[in-house]
C-alpha cells in the first residue's frame, strides 16, 4: 500500500470524490467520504420509492381511486 489508511481517509474526505483501490493493477474497490455515501443512499432510496409508486399505479384499478370531493367529504372538510 503506497498510502496508509489515515492518509486515504483524509484524502477521500477532502477530495469528495471516489478513490479507486487497486490490487495487481486491477480495480478492487472504491473509497468514498461519508457525505457522498449518504447522498448516494438518499438517491437510491428516492429511486426505489419512485419505482414502488410507479408499480402500484400500474397495478391500480379504477375502483382504487375516488374523486377529491368525495375524499374531502369523508374527512368532513369543505
UniProtKB/TrEMBL annotation:
It comes from the Bacteria. Antitoxin component of a type II toxin-antitoxin (TA) system. SUPFAM superfamilies: YefM-like. InterPro entries: Antitoxin_Phd/YefM (IPR006442), YefM-like_sf (IPR036165). This is Antitoxin. The lineage of its organism: Bacteria, Candidatus Woeseibacteriota. It comes from Candidatus Woesebacteria bacterium GW2011_GWA1_39_8. Belongs to the phD/YefM antitoxin family.
Amino acid at each position: 500500500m503506497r498510502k496508509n489508511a489515515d492518509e486515504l481517509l483524509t484524502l477521500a474526505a477532502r477530495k469528495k470524490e471516489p478513490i479507486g483501490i487497486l490490487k495487481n493493477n486491477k480495480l478492487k474497490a472504491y473509497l468514498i467520504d461519508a457525505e457522498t455515501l449518504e447522498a448516494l443512499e438518499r438517491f437510491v432510496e428516492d429511486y426505489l420509492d419512485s419505482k414502488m409508486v410507479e408499480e402500484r399505479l400500474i397495478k391500480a384499478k379504477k375502483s382504487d381511486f375516488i374523486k377529491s370531493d368525495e375524499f374531502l367529504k369523508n374527512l368532513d372538510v369543505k
